[in-house]
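Input record (one chain):
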Amino acid sequence: MTELEKKRVVITGLGATTPIGNNLDSYWQGLLAGKSGVGPITHFDAAKHTTQIAAEVKGFDPCEFMDRKDAKRMDRFSQFAVATSKQALADAQLEINDLNAEQVGVMIGTGIGGLKVMEDQQEVYLNRGPGRCSPFMVPMMIANMAAGLTAIQTGAKGPNSCPVTACAAGSNAIGDAFRLVQQGYAQAMICGGTEAAITPLGVAGFASARALSVRNDEPQAASRPFDRDRDGFVIGEGCGILILESLDHALSRGAKIYGEMIGYGMTCDAYHMTAPVPGGAGAARCIQLALKDAGITPDQVSYVNAHGTSTPANDPTETQAIKTALGEHAYNIAVSSTKSMTGHLLGGSGGIEGVAAAMTVAHDQVPPTINLENPDENCDLDYVPGQARQMPVDVTLSNSFGFGGHNVTLVFQKYRD
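The corresponding structure, as predicted from the sequence alone:
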């Protein structure tokens, strides 16, 4: 397909279920206010865990979006996906019907899938025997079910898939959906990421890998990207969904447009199961490929929504990758980590950060990095510490990096006729 045949892709709907708000407006206002969603774990008794804090979604009622019977047959990660997708469709005022169902697809990534269901059913197996395990265990647990159930609940019969690329999954889903619309395989895509892994095993596993913060006495100060006193990430949960449409389709129905998606890059470090390659060469190449795909130069970038996990390894490595990819212009842009407020949603992080990136180009506002009090000497960019910033935002990058060496960068631009 030639450049002339590629369709322009725009963002017409957004949805968010997050630790700082269960809809788009509360999420966005929470980001701008520097609100932390981190607190003591309430989903289970964490007294025996070294990490006892997380960024939980509060007050979520799946029955606001689906029948109680359907909700009971979904793991929480799928409930988040269905609810947030319905939010985004309503925001886009996109109705799926017999005429367009085959042209609307779903691409929702997750890193882990139905971990809570698996843990619960293991208990049933051990205590009551194999015959008492639920017949819904497997379809509730498997990672693709967020995308599958979203299609069932919305009637979307177009392309449907589920990237499972750890913490890059949500961004891969958005990027893959972008390609499908750009190349004419769908008129619109429901896309993003979802995760619900704040469970005893989920927290224990990441804690044993020494990835999690143990700042249990100061939960809201625990996620502190680019700060020299950071001691690991804070696990979060939730979902972020974008509605991507071809520009022609969006204009034909008079849709509002938040911005345009113009680029997608992905690479692999091919280096280590959990650690980024020193110097961030894989991430830098990913950013460069995304810029090339978008047809723009580094000096056109206004803002980077960083992966910014608050881990000792990620933050200086990502900083170096941004500097390698953007050169001296890296010092002229704003960079921030919204994970300082939401925690790290693993496979869902690219979803809510894609939503944030779209809102920055729509509103010319950049969320802050909170808890950045003592900058790491190896992290020397403008991380928008403490307070949100009103500034012209023409092009935003959103970075996501996952265990296994997966790197993804998405490029969003202000929409112009």
